[in-house]
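Subject: Interface between my chains keeps coming out wrong

I've been trying for a while to get a sensible model of this assembly. When I model each chain on its own everything looks fine, but I need the whole thing in one frame so I can look at the contacts. Pasting all components below, labels as-is. Any help appreciated, I'm running out of ideas.
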Amino acid sequence: MRALSVAVLRTATGVGFRAAFPAGRGVRPASEVNLSRPERAASALLGGVLLVRGLTRRSVGGAGIWVLGGILLYRGISGHSRLYEALGVNTAGVARREPGASEAAIEVRRSITIGRPADELYRFWREPGNLSRIVAPIGEVAPAGDGRTHWRVHVPLGRSLEWDARVMEDRPGELLRWESLEGADLPNEGSVSFRAAPRDWGTEVMLRFRFDPPGGVLGKAASERLSVVPGALAEKALRRFKSLVETGEIPTTERNPSARAGRGSD
Amino acid sequence: MRALCWNGINDLRVETVPDPVIVNPHDAMLRVTMSTTCGSDLHFIDGYIPTMRSGDVIGHEFMGEVVEVGPEVRQVRKGDRVVVPSFICCGSCWYCRHELWSLCDNTNPRADLQEPLLGYPTAGIYGYTHAFGGYAGAHAEYVRVPHADNDCFKVPEGLRDEQVVFFSDAAPTGYMGADFCGIQPGDTVAVWGCGGVGLMAIQSAYLLGAGRVIAIDRFPERLRMASERAGAETINYAEVDSVIEALKEMTGGRGPDACIEAVGMEAHGTGVQYAYDRTKQALHLATDRGEALRQAIVACRKGGTLVILGVYGVMDKFPLGVMMNKGLTVRTAQQHGQKYVPRLLEHAVRGELDPSYLATHRFSLEDAPRGYEMFKKKEDGCVRAVFVPSG
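Reply #2:
Try treating it as a single job with all components included. I did that and got this:
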């Protein structure tokens, strides 16, 4: 469900948004528009979802949800927010921030403890084949020559986000930091770092990455919510890394469904 | 293959499902020779535990014959007759290395479902919800066993399936409970619940040096079993005014040194507190009925040990203050089976522990729904139903 909303938001801020609101034919005169394009898209999208949800729920709460949905949808389509007007906020003129430069960037950090020395973990991570297995459910990563790696991250509805990344900092057994290069679908920057854990725990591994939200006040709020998704993905990748290193395999029920086919298996 | 599937609340059916296959290098495939019902299954059959999916193959207490092994399996061989603990454990992570097996880090593919509630994920279990991994269960003709070298225990010659199948879960759970009591020679241990786990806890407490074990239940046939098979003194809580007063009377006013709770979230009781719990649970205002647990907390002597083996959700109205003021030590866990199975098999070989009396009813796998029905309603004195796929 959450993963789905990422994809939908992206669609809405891209092609879908432009199709729905062709330039120069806005519902309101440009002077009354006080919402940025991404925020309008996010507002319309969230409004639409709430409207549908609210209408399918026959309760007082449901009614509240669809009224809120309707307000957000109107706000998105018209590009005008009365609340913003009253508060003197205008996000329509806000320029799109440069990657990595914005204070609104979303940072995700997740840690795991693995029962192996840091050097071994660092070497394991650097093997392209291993990294591919670790990120398999999320996407693909392949060497792209010239010290670069090509990333493709799956998002629902058959879409994917792609970028090339280059290692910017390399301290063997300690840290690896990379940045996406010009032309990335989702400009981002990340690192994996290793430090000794106490007792016989092994090594604490931290995976960190940062990306820019779509923009706008609501866009930022949506992104903060959505950071749950990359957070969960980071956690999943770390768990797979740990299991692969510690046991030589990744736990799975693949091809051994417990539930009936078509009801989703893991 | 044929397997027992959960299709919704109180809806179990034997169906034809895809055969399991070996996917990971440490997997083995077992032909199940015997499996058994467990009280903890009743919680999701009754709908009190979430993350079941329609069609899930259930069953986590079983044994069988190895029919195939993955390329990295070194010790287990085709043809071995083995018993397998219900928790899947890697044998390599910190928790496994410290014998906290059911806390294994590397066997739950759906850690993401479990972590929000528990904070950290535990090991996976066969046939026991998707939060515990979504592995297919063992009430089936075949079952896939990951980490076979770590999780399969060879059965010594001369033991029948009925003597061994409970070493998959009921016996190690009960034994762990007694182990957690830190029994000093001559101690008195009280055990709530005389199902498979409770009966095993009683026998284990004696094996570990308890002087007296007092069993609490309401079913005369189970209390008789506790007395005749396991050697416990008994209290029928439906026939006494107060279990706590009865225990005091039996222990010179001190109370039991250790109390083992082997009942869980669907406890029965008498009186107002039980009616309150039952109503709340029926209305889904609470997940648990904790009558047995509350009794154990009050009954335990000051500075004693409380061991919780029953399965619970997120119980409210928990008398934490009583526990704290009495300075109780609380020990609890899902079974660390891999730690206890070898010594249990030794007890079995020496003739010191024979759990086969738990298998009061035997069914072919095809009749498993009927077996669960009898087990749940405790019809005809049913303690455990065992299923035989070829039977």
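Reply #3:
Confirming on my end. Residues 1-28, 93-101 of chain A have pLDDT under 50 and may be disordered.
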